[in-house]
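Revision sheet: structure tokens.
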Amino acid sequence: MQALQFHAGPRARSRLAERGLRAEDVRIIPAAAGGPKGLILNALDRHLFGPWLGASQQEVHLLGASIGAWRMATACLGDAEAEFERLAQEYAHQDYDHAPGKPPTASSVSKGFAAKLDQVFGGRECEVLSHPRYRLHLFTSRGRHLLGREGRVRTPLGYFGAFATNLVSRKAMGGWLERVVFSDLRSPLPMLLKDYRSRQVELSARNLQQALLASCSIPFWLNAVHDIPGAPKGAYWDGGITDYHLHLNYAQMLGDGLVLYPHFQRSIVPGWLDKALRYRHAPTAFLDNVVVLTPSEDFIRGLPRGKLPDRADFQHYGDDLQGRAVAWLRAVREGERLRDEFAALAERDSIQALPL
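Predicted:
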């Protein structure tokens, strides 16, 4: 049974067929939101950011939202392979103060997650930001107007407004939420961000942890992060709201390189509020030069509970933290098959990718 599938846009498919996939071809690596689903890519991340990309020398842009932001920041640390192993352990064993039989409050999760980020990245901000080749870009969603500050009444009303306007168009939702990308401004990415109301601000040692926390702050599950240093004042939430799977205008990328996208599904959904809007899941011309690596359906059926790890597991396992961690770490180990198949395919002179 094949575990890994290659899907690609038209230009990328032709290139893979002609010369296979080479590390030096990669210019951008996106990393989607999706919570625990990202764990299935952990072994692949260890390989990509360890020996595989380590054999090349080009500049690579790392784009991340939510858990994808944590993954891409991890890639910028010194021993990426060891750090990705740590990420899997930390994520699988996460626990937050809560009353027995009740879920933790948003404040408790925010406090605990901020402490976890500080354990990992505290005092290492300059290490993340000074990587000689990787340019880090962390995606957040900044509230506007009613969503400019978090509140018991204004937040639900504001997100109802965002949901309603998003039904009209993604651009209309920009009246409620704007994309703010905390970027390594040595190499900004304005050409990719013209599809939606956006701004880039400088990612610095002062705001790295807060930008990471904001990018992972799912509304109602965590509190918003307010007034991040160096950025416009306001409430910042999970980058996946505006950019669930980072469906950006990659075709506008300068040069002839490829976008390599390790993902947990074939479709690249623009925003979190588009999940139910199936007509927005189709590939577009934006993805012409994108290569998507995704687990096969047969592989997923062999995982614990026959699915990828996801947030529903928090309810399923309840206070059985060890049971949840065992299941998630088993999925991480199964993901080694994705890594091994990728390593073998990357040695070939030609790869026949499936269409997106």
